[in-house]
Amino acid sequence: MKSNSKTRLDKFALLLFPLLALVFYALLLNTNRTVFENPEAVMYLYIDNAAKGNFGYGNSIRYANDISFSGLEIGDIILGGYPDCAYGRFSHVAMYVGNGQVIEAFVDYGVHIRPIDHFRDYKEVCLLRVEAEPEIKEKAVEYAQSLQGKMFYALAFKPGERIWNCSKLIWRAYLEEGIDLDPSRDLWISPDIFYKSEQISIIRERGV
Amino acid sequence: MPVNLSRLYFIHITAIAAGILSTYFPGMDILVALLYLLLIGFEARRAYQLPRWKQSLTALIWQAPGILWALILITSFNLMGVYEYAIFLLQFWFTPLLGVISLSGWYFYFDKPIYYYLLIYLPFISFLYYLGIASFMYPKTRFDFNQPSRISFIKPRDN
Questions:
Q1: Do residue B21 and residue A25 have CB atoms under 8 angstroms apart?
Q2: CA–CA separation, A89 vs A110, rounded Å?
Q3: A104, A190, B109, B123: which has the fewest C-beta neighbours closer than 10 Å?
Q4: Close Cβ partners of A31 (under 8 Å, ≥ 6 residues apart)
Q5: Of A118, A126, A145, which Cα lies nearest the Cα of A196?
Q6: Residues of B with CB below 8 A from A187's CB?
Q7: Cβ of B103 under 8 Å from any chain A Cβ?
Q8: Which chain B residues are within 8 Å of A13, Cβ to Cβ?
Q9: Interface ipTM
Q10: What is the DSSP string of B14-83?
Q11: Model confidence, pTM
Q12: Which CATH architecture describes the domain A77-207?
């Protein structure tokens, strides 16, 4: 009798996480059917690139681009990208907070403030301006700054406030002020989404 | 030992899948992390009959990927170009514990958040967690002479 219950417990231990994964997947599918049916969704882009052998953020050597950061205003968005990035032209995004600094999320540092100069390392770089009042942009920056120290996770979904990636941080900061920069309603945000957003104008760019 | 190891890997890999999906539902990732700790504890308890060296080897092989990536980060040794991605791989390896790790935010030490250091030490902490339970938490049936046990040499006296 005892050994029967032990065997059952042994099996249960093995089945628990596959079952949980199935339940989560079913719930995710049920609430986001349109995303799964959209061939341009970020996950399909990632799968396509993985099939071509492109993983992660691409070939990250220092490209020393010559873009000028002059004239940037608080709340402007900076995109950076390496060749062969698995999720689009750009692999990273940050928001200008003034004094030559940006707020961003990165795996080593979590959500943090850093000098803008490291965007010179990217081959592709683009400066964007959100079409909004300066007060709204300042509030977006304040919100992002309040998240300093929070954890980075590359596969962070849109919901939740404990786990962030670079794109989710910027998207959410503006969403808190009523500006949704992602028209795709995808599960994840990728940096390219900001480039395509209709509420954004391009200040200048380097690369392709 | 191969059975114990296979079970550990199966639980760990399926917990990674469950962990990723659970992050869509805030709070569920914490539940996954707690269940993961519970199941690993349960697996460690199953290994009580193994000799200490086999328990250590099981824990070591189970955490080998994590230990490798942590050592690459600690030593800055760029093994086959993996250094740059080591922290991503380490974080991915510990996806099952993401819910718990993410609670460690707000603190910085030498310019890096606490979770960064936690990730580096987690392979070793996991190793000790498994070994600690396997070595010191015997099941209640320890005096059941029909069960294999390290103290099975104690036989009942014939009256």
A1: yes
A2: 23
A3: B109
A4: none
A5: A126
A6: 24
A7: yes
A8: 7, 11, 39, 42-43
A9: 0.85
A10: HHHHHHHHHTTSTTHHHHHHHHHHHHHHHHHHHGGGS-HHHHHHHHHHHTHHHHHHHHHHHHT--GGG-H
A11: 0.85
A12: Alpha-Beta Complex (3.90)
